[in-house]
Write a structure and sequence with these properties.
ABC_transporter-like_ATP-bd; ATP binding; globular; Rossmann fold; 3 domains; four-stranded antiparallel β-sheet; alpha/beta; single chain; ABC transporter ATP-binding protein; binds adenosine-5'-triphosphate; 11 helices; 331 residues; six-stranded mixed β-sheet
Length: 331
């Protein structure tokens, strides 16, 4: 089982310029969380701070009773072994073949024999569907394969927490769909805690158990997927529905004048789209952390947008409680 990551009051600046401040959230053990936010809001900085590559100005990151910002370099080095990180470009060594790239953390951080290393590398390459590509150089394979190789490398030390920095950047929609399925299947198999930074709204809507949004130097919201997908909070609604109307502007937040002009022009955000069902593991079992669709909405007295929790063919894939169906008649 993965471990919980509790972040409290985290603040980070560079040269006196704050990137974000006072971020508090808990990544539940073994669950998948997605972190969203406009470009430049500091999502990558957040991941690097979590894994201890950057020191926060203040705040706590508590994992298994240890507060990372307070640890010595030596203890931090140990805690870092709990993490696997998939960097944006896969961060593979260009001169090493895929096998050696994936074997690298094992050779650096463990005393395992080459035959033990071979067994682990083969297992991880099999997990990401790359058996047969061992001898290729990163420059000889596609972007999607490089991401998968980076993922195999992130998994070799059997991490309890896996951080993904834009795993879908530069991938076509079909490859993104395959990668998303792979992420769900790996979460099911490894039981690690996953945090994914993405700009892909479809990924954000269907893959995670929890969603967070960083905006304007703060965490605008973090919580269960249904909470954000049914939220009418303007920033969350605008971002999760990829709209131009709302507080977020092209370069930064819109000023009062722009928002007033928008209001005068009668510009309104379209209705919330239906909440899709979550992507399921391909082994046919339910997700471990799955809550029944509609449960968060029911527990919080929130009516989900019409058509929510239908499968891709528009058919309901789950029994909905009477609360979620018009007049108690399943729609
Ligand atoms: N080591 C550093 N030193 C100084 N400034 C930095 C450093 N790393 C990041 N920044 C700044 O922090 C801000 C946030 O950068 P970051 O890459 O985390 O944003 P992001 O939300 O991941 O963006 P994108 O979605 O475009 O990838 C940027 O203004 C960036 O220039």
């Amino acid at each position: 089982m993965g471990v919980e990551v509790a972040v409290r009051g985290l603040t980070k600046s560079f040269g006196g310029q704050p990137v974000w401040s006072d971020i508090s959230l808990t990544l539940p053990a073994g669950e998948i969380s997605v972190l969203l936010g406009p470009s430049g809001t500091g999502k990558s900085v957040f991941l690097k701070t979590l894994v201890g590559l950057l020191r926060p100005d203040r705040g706590d990151i508590v994992i298994e009773g240890r507060n990372l910002p307070r640890l010595s370099e030596r203890d931090l080095y140990e805690v870092r072994k709990l993490f696997g990180v998939l960097f944006q470009d896969g961060a593979l060594f260009g001169s090493m073949n895929i096998y050696d790239n994936v074997a690298f953390p094992l050779r650096e951080h463990t005393r395992r024999s080459e035959s033990e290393i071979r067994a682990v590398v083969t297992e991880k390459l099999d997990m990401v569907g790359l058996v047969g590509a061992e001898k290729k150089l990163p420059g000889e394979i596609s972007g999607g394969m490089r991401k998968r190789a980076g993922l195999a490398r992130a998994l070799v030390l059997d991490p309890q927490i896996v951080l993904f920095d834009e795993p879908d950047s530069g991938l076509d929609p079909v490859r993104t769909a395959y990668l998303n399925q792979l992420i769900i299947d790996l979460n099911q198999r490894t039981e690690a805690t996953f945090l994914i930074v993405t700009h892909d709204i479809n990924t954000a809507r269907t893959v995670p158990d929890n969603i967070g949004l960083i905006y304007h130097g703060h965490l605008a919201m973090f919580g269960p997927r249904e909470m954000l997908l049914s939220s009418t909070e303007p920033v969350v609604r605008q971002f999760l529905n990829a709209q131009r109307i709302g507080p977020i502007g092209m370069a930064e937040e819109k000023d009062a004048e722009e928002l007033q002009a928008e209001a005068q022009a009668g510009a309104e955000l379209p209705p919330l789209p239906p909440i899709p069902v979550q992507l399921q593991p391909s082994d046919g079992r339910r997700r471990r952390a799955e809550r029944p669709p509609g449960q968060w909405c029911r527990d919080h007295g929130v009516e989900p947008p019409p058509g929510s929790f239908a499968g891709p063919d528009g058919q309901r894939t789950v029994e909905l409680p009477a609360f979620l169906t018009r007049d108690g008649v399943p729609g």
